[in-house]
Design a protein that fits this description.
Layout: E1 3-11, E2 16-23, H1 29-38, E3 40-46, E4 49-56, E5 60-65, E6 70-76, H2 80-99
Antiparallel strand pairs: 1-2, 2-6, 3-4, 4-5, 5-6
Amino acid sequence: MHIVDRIKTSKCIDGNIVSEYTLSKPIDSAFLSILDMMGLLSIKKLGNLQMFTYREDDWLTIKGMTGDTMLYVTHLKSKKERTEERITFFLEQYRKEEEG
């Protein structure tokens, strides 16, 4: 799984940036397991699908749904590079799990 596209969709009045990330594969439970190990993950089931919100401290929120290729990412403007690094790390961990 890798990032296909990244679009900055809005700036919040509190200084946060909201971006949409399109992934090469739909999000699955293996990806959620990685998020669960790294921060606070909440999941709501909708039939066979799972909506999720991942939070890391006060600077990063990732939302999405299994079966979908979109991630909605909110982060502090000052943490743009760290956010990119973090998402890349999650995807690298996912690839390692897939291969291993």
